Amino acid sequence: MFKDFVTLFTGMKAATGIMLIVGLILIIVKIFQPGQRTFGYLGGIFIVLGVVFRMINDGSSSHLFWLTFMVITILFISYIVSVATNRSGWFVKMKEEDEKMLATSLANRSKFDMTMLTNRKCEAVTEFFPEGTIKLDGNYYVAISAENEFIPKNSKLIIANVDGNKLYVKKLKEEKQC
If we measure between CA atoms, which residue out of 44, 43, 57 comes closest to residue 7? Predict the structure, then answer.
């Protein structure tokens, strides 16, 4: 059986190997950077194409088994590492005082109609990719980038939409001075 594992790579074309590696890298990036579905989708497509191309080019059922086993093992290990590090993005953990402020803001948030926040200006307290924390009138809120884009910390934002208890924000376009 180990011989089949060795032939898996010796008979593999370079393009197939590249597709599998790129696919795994993209899915691992998706695991460590939540909110970016594109990486996960592209990674899945690359892995499936790599397996299909390997099977088309003289693949056997044992090759399919080994490819599937390797992909699942690598993804499982990546997931365990991401969970073990308590990640909120690239191994970043929210500071304790930020967690307390956020909890207080969440408790206050249930006391009023969130739609009143539409078109209000605010500031990004954390980076958005695509989710982050904003500060508005001394309160902290979890918000989502309306355009599903990266927003740097301390950016000026505007609340573009409110859907239930979800706030969607956009970067504030700089106003031209006369």
Answer: 57
Domain 96-171 in CATH 3.30.450.20: no
CA 109 from chain centre, in angstroms, equals 26
Q: What is the pTM of this model?
A: 0.46
Phi then psi for 30, rounded to 5 degrees? -60, -40
Query: Rounded to an integer, what distance in angstroms lies between the CA atom of residue 168 and that of residue 143?
Result: 6
C-alpha to C-alpha distances, 59 to 11, 85, 125, nearest whole angstrom:
9, 38, 51
By the 10 Å C-beta count (0-12 exposed, 13-18 middle, 19+ buried), 95 is classed as: exposed
In one letter, which amino acid is 26?
L
Q: Terminal CA-to-CA distance of the chain, rounded, Å?
A: 75
For residue range 119-178, what is the model confidence (pLDDT) as tens digits? 999 999 988 878 889 999 888 888 999 988 888 889 999 999 998 778 999 998 865 444
The domain locations on the chain are 2-84, 96-171
Q: Determine if residue 154 is left, alpha or beta; phi over 0 gives left, psi from -120 to 50 gives alpha, anything else beta.
A: left
Output b/e per residue, 38-57; b: 16+ Cβ within 10 A. Answer: ebbebbeebbebbbebbeee
User: Residue type at 72?
Assistant: I
